[in-house]
Amino acid sequence: MVNKKWFAGIGISVMLLGSSLAGCSSNSGGEGGAGSPQEGEKVQITLAGWGSSPEETKLLDEVIADFESENPDIDVKRDTIADQYMDVIKTRLIGGEGPDVFYLDAFEAPGLIETGVVEPLDSYINEDFDIADFEEPLIQAFQKDGQTFGFPKGYSTLAMFYNKKMFEEAGLEVPATWEEFEEAAKNLTDGTNVYGFGASPELARLYHIAESKGGKVATDNKATFADPKVVEALQPIIDMHNVDKSAAEPKEAGANWTGEMFGQGKAAMVFEGNWAIPYLQSTFPDLEFDTAELPTIDGNKGTMAYTVSYVMNAASEKKEASWKLISYLTGKEGMEKWTSKGFELPSRVSVAENLGFDKDELRGPLVAGASYSTVWADDTNLPIIFNNFNNQYVSAFLGERPLDQALKEAQDQANSEIGD
């Protein structure tokens, strides 16, 4: 049985809500159904999302204005949820006051889709929408049992950011394999002044590495990250910190995150996402840096991907208009404008090519990783698994106890909570 503890005990309420609204929510977008305006009338739909930078907000407003210009019978009301986004969305869905369209992070998607409150979109799609154009790992994060529940509006993978000046002074080539990476990190380390690698000791950044030796972080909705193969895959990072002294987490260097640690010159290499590029360029304008795909492990490429989709409320009474908005925002025209500034990378291959991101000096390695990425999404219990892993893994990273012992305790605790 799938555990829904993460949903704060509201799964039954949501299922009851879905049943009560089934009669008024069955429209699949056909003419004359719910959400089809009568001649001369305007349909208003609500789009909910979280807050973003002023630049991103301005750009989204422009994209929506373009949509409204092309669809004069539809008015889009934006609803920005500044704090506790998922808690607010869940509460509104239970109360029958959910938005028509809303953001859904891949991390939260499996659990929310399981409850039945997200509308399957397959019956709305026509050939012009071109699903095959999406990067496959990204769209798979929003699919279940052969149905598609959302389309990714953008994404970022992880790439290796490296300090060009430090590499040149050390006479080093950019590492392509994990062994080369470890060796470069040792050579670039200068006591506690500069660490070769600025590490983020959390599962969201380590998932693909954890599974690189054939182990599984989670199996059948249970934590299995104490698997010896997972321990083997993660041990090199522990050893970089405790044996080679070539890695450190940001707070050990007086920084808040690895991007800041890198920008301050306290780390020669970090694994970061697209968001770090504008941050570094604006905050550390004199920093000479470049990016590369993450080093291979046993000859295999790997990286993480983080993505958010637009989804439709299954209880919306304006499904036709809602689909028009989703299909515009994630279609080629809308996505090209939305991703043109580089805040997010286009989840459509053709748009990335049109914008030149696949060949961009800094973003090219991030785009290259999309096709083989591990999306930060797994099952309905990932939040429980994630929290317990992080709570104990950091103690091993800091040398307080062996990694296998820390992960065994974390796995037992996670599965105890899941079992409850």
UniProtKB/TrEMBL annotation:
Any GO BP annotation: maltodextrin transmembrane transport
Signal peptide: 1-22
UniProt keyword Transmembrane present: no
GO molecular function: maltose binding
GO cellular component assignments: ATP-binding cassette (ABC) transporter complex, substrate-binding subunit-containing
Highest taxon, organism lineage: Bacteria
Gene3D superfamilies per record: Periplasmic binding protein-like II (3.40.190.10)
Any matching Pfam family: SBP_bac_1
UniProt cross-references to PROSITE patterns, sorted A to Z: PROKAR_LIPOPROTEIN (PS51257)
Keywords: Signal, Transport
Record-linked CDD domains: PBP2_UgpB
Family label: Belongs to the bacterial solute-binding protein 1 family.
Name the UniProt record assigns to this protein: Extracellular solute-binding protein
